[in-house]
Description:
binds zinc ion; ten-stranded mixed sheet; globular; single chain
Amino acid sequence: MTGDAFFKTVSHFFPKLTKWLQSVDDPRNKNKIIYEPSHLLWLGIFLFLLRLGSKRKIKYKLATEDFLKNLNQLCTGYSENVAHHDTVEYLLQRLEPEELYGVRQKMVNRLIRMKALEKYRLLEEYYMIAVDGTGHLMFKERHCPHCLTKKKDGKILYYYHNVLEAKLVTGTGLALSVETEFIQNSDGETKQDCELNAFYRMAKRLKRRFPQLKICLLLDSLYAAGPVIDISEEYGWKYITVFKRGSMPERYEEFCQLKKLCPENEIELANDKASQKYSWVGDIDHKGNYFDVIELNEAALDKKTRFVWLTNFKVGKKNIIKIAKGGRLRWKIENEGFNIQKNRGFNLEHPYSQDEISMKNLYLLLQIAYILSQLMEKGSLLKHKIQKVFGSVTMLFEQLLEDLRTKSVGVNFSNKPIQIRLSSFP
Ligand SMILES: [Zn+2]
């Protein structure tokens, strides 16, 4: 059942995925190639999708006759056995990460073109993209020339690699990776790379890869900064950014003063459990670019929470609640994005490879696997069965592993169009 759902999910959402994996520019010696790139890259995707936890398990868990039959169905050619994990690593150490960036871009574009994500847009118009950095790998010894260093009292405590992610998020809990920037030192040890610098590099690529996409960035207070506002205006992006006193002190003070002058800019909602007070201030000038500020005060039981965002949406009574709801989705990138990738079998922080290039490629394969994983979880084939039949998402993928290694799943890839709807509920 789950094996069948897996093949149906792939063929419904990404019927050309194997073709895209097959067409990566293969850097290996053409004369000696035994395994096609799609065979090896699918194994890399399965490493994460099936939550194997280490590359060695590819051989231990996946080298069965039925798994090979299933894998061959996904590939264009025919292989006589399942490749060894060293062979997967050999390709990943040589493959340009740009190739996998390209595969992911095609996947995201396909979802957008088939309108699978349309109903989740903010104000029926903007795809919400949350941007945030996270820890990736940590080493006691210097691992490569690009390691970041954590120092205390002039002494190096450890070496590490961080990553900046842009994920398309929805109110139903999807967090689909659309862009990645590795935070790393490029000029040796003198200057540490940082999240904001990585954002400026990432923004250019995001615009180049999705030039027409209507985007609203969801950002934390680190991004309440002039250059981020300028870039967003230049690229035609909307933004909703957490606004704290420290981030732009003069503008923040201005907001506090202006708020007193417009008490009419206010909406209050309340039921017997909670109350929300929304207020806003329009047209704060930052060097010729204007933004509005939203404040939300929420009281539930004995807990009071205050949120403040700055945004280049023109805020008013009609849209303030929806915009604030969008702003609150930012935490999805941490919860549905990073925490799950770190803790639920994906082992984001596990050094699957020490090699500089391979570790980037593995990171990108993890993102591709996680897109497939979420579409299976939220798709109408399995969604309602997760609690009742499997008990949890983890069990669902344990069952998928069992199905793929012990049953040959005969799916006719080309004929019957099937319909998979994505859930409207979290
Ligand atoms: Zn390193």
